Amino acid sequence: MKAFLRNEAGQVMVFVAILMTVFIGFLALVVDFGSLYLEKSRLQKTADAAALASGQELPGNNQRAMEEAIRSIQLNDENPDNFSIILKDQPTAIEVHGSKKVSLYFAKLFGVSEQTITATARVELEAGPPIKSATNTVPLGFPKLNYLKYGSSVIFFGKETVHINYSGKSNTFKEELENGFKGNISVNKVYETYNGNQLGNIKTAIDDRIGDCPHATYRHYPSGCKRVVLVPLYESLPNSDNVRIVGFASFFLKSVSNTSADVEAVFLEELTDPPTFKLTKVE
Prior knowledge:
Layout: H1 2-55, H2 62-75, E1 83-87, E2 93-103, E3 114-126, E4 133-134, E5 140-143, E6 153-156, E7 162-165, H3 173-179, E8 185-186, E9 190-193, H4 199-212, E10 228-236, E11 243-256, E12 263-270, E13 276-282
């Protein structure tokens, strides 16, 4: 009888040992998966915050967008080296990718000491409705062309461009081209256009604007750079030299010809009311 009991006790001990091993295994899964979940959530929130912070600078200020993303990551006590910030082909979208290794605890008993977690957030600007009026516009108009995209090259003062007479005076073109028209220009308003050769005025005014920030590019330019101009978009009226304003767009001035009235510029964006931010998480 005693031998039988000793045999039963031994079996119970073996069974208990097996159960303890299984229990420790489940404990390892619970603790380590819980730790991974918390770190993953923290990484995702950091990526979300960085994407939203950088999106405030889009479009047009890519360097500032990158700086704001890094600043946001640091404010969330994360290492910027664990993140990559990617400006997409279109200037209205940015992605933030985060990746880091998380140390495990109980799982080390099974030979697993760490696990890599990742998180991705994408912010895309969705344009609001076109603005209805603007100030500081230059006295030239460009037709509303749906095919223009960010970075598209255009030639101002070519056959599609008109010289708009905002004030109805004949001697204000150069001043308004250099510094912008200070009055309010509204959508649907009809304006007369200038006739005559404006080559000298165009060359002087555009050279002045380019000289304000000569090393700027359409991707990177300082705040207030005069190479960025606000241009009214127009539609022609039948049997008339007058034009109707239908919107506004910003362009970056690249160069001006020495022998003609042609100015090379880059399309930046059609101006709208404040855009909304669409945040997409890639788990």
